[in-house]
């Protein structure tokens, strides 16, 4: 199956929930798992706190996009390199 | 050519019909401090042997076959990208894929333990995502269970004569899913339900962690096949080298 079709299906899978599921924020927080823990054992106190927390959502987004950008850059570079190498024999 | 397309499409459709109506949920790694220290310790101890074997395997591989270094970088980059993508799911919440299946198929599961751990460290230190105390548990699910499931399933698929692309797809998808099933299991062990015990708690956590992951796992499987297609077309030389070592990816 060509990559184009595969990527198209992947894109559909990502975009469709936005239209199918209503009344939700698509929150990516771990809040519900936390709530579940508190529901099961109400007296549990987290005993360790995060070392560093991004000061704001914007900074967090920056770091996440940096992670993705670096990765994507490397993937593009390597595949491009292989492609060029193959073309030049 | 047409058969896998049919399977993938029908699988996606089933997932959507099954889960489109479930209540909202969130899914990610286990949060910092959210495992009692005994459990945190147990998972650290279980995880470390895999990590050290992985380090040894990786250094040996780099020494013996330096030409595959680029592929190693590719596998690392793939995990970095995929675990940075928070993708909306049919459960009405977002989660991210893991990207560990791909590398496990290339280099075997142990090498992927090291790479997956590196990604988790990055996220724990800089993004307040996951945590250091829970790193053992998170690494065990994402960097041990995931890669091993991918590798095992791939070997099994090949034995059963399933086509190569389909095997890659299934292996990557199940690795992703297994990671979050394991996370649910870890939480259930640490927080058994008062009335329904570990199993009841497992079902509760699985409804949060694993269900959200189903469409993401399919997406990850698709992405993995895309990159694999590129490799298969352009870098036979490296794949040959890896195959010599018994990592049969071709």
Overview of the structural elements:
The complex is a heterodimer of chains A (89) and B (250). Chain A is mostly helical. Chain A has one domain. Chain A has three helices and no strands. Chain A is extended. Chain B is mainly alpha-helical and 250 residues long. Chain B has one domain: Arp2/3 complex 21 kDa subunit ARPC3 (Orthogonal Bundle). Chain B is built from nine helices and two strands. Chain B has a two-stranded antiparallel sheet with strand order 1-2. In chain B, a hairpin with a 5-residue loop joins strand 1 and strand 2. In chain B, helix 2 packs across helix 6, helix 4 runs antiparallel to helix 5 and helix 4 crosses helix 6. Chain B is globular and about 55 Å long. The two termini of chain B are 17 Å apart. The chains are: A mainly alpha (89), B mainly alpha (250). Chains A and B meet through helix 1, helix 2 and helix 3 of A and helix 1, helix 3, strand 1, strand 2 and helix 5 of B. Chain B: Keywords: Cell membrane, Cobalamin biosynthesis, Cobalt, Cobalt transport, Ion transport, Membrane, Signal, Transmembrane, Transmembrane helix, Transport. Chain B: Part of the energy-coupling factor (ECF) transporter complex CbiMNOQ involved in cobalt import. Chain B: Belongs to the CbiM family. Chain B: It is found in: Cell inner membrane; Cell membrane. Chain B: Pfam families: CbiM. Chain A: This is Cobalt transport protein CbiN.
Tell me the layout of helices and strands.
The complex is a heterodimer of chains A (89) and B (250).
Chain A: H1 3-20, H2 31-40, H3 57-87
Chain B: H1 2-19, H2 37-64, H3 69-84, E1 87-88, E2 94-95, H4 100-107, H5 109-126, H6 135-159, H7 164-190, H8 197-234, H9 236-244
Antiparallel strand pairs in B: 1-2
Helix pairs in contact in B: 1-8, 2-5, 2-6, 3-4, 3-5, 4-5, 4-6, 4-7, 5-6, 6-7, 7-8
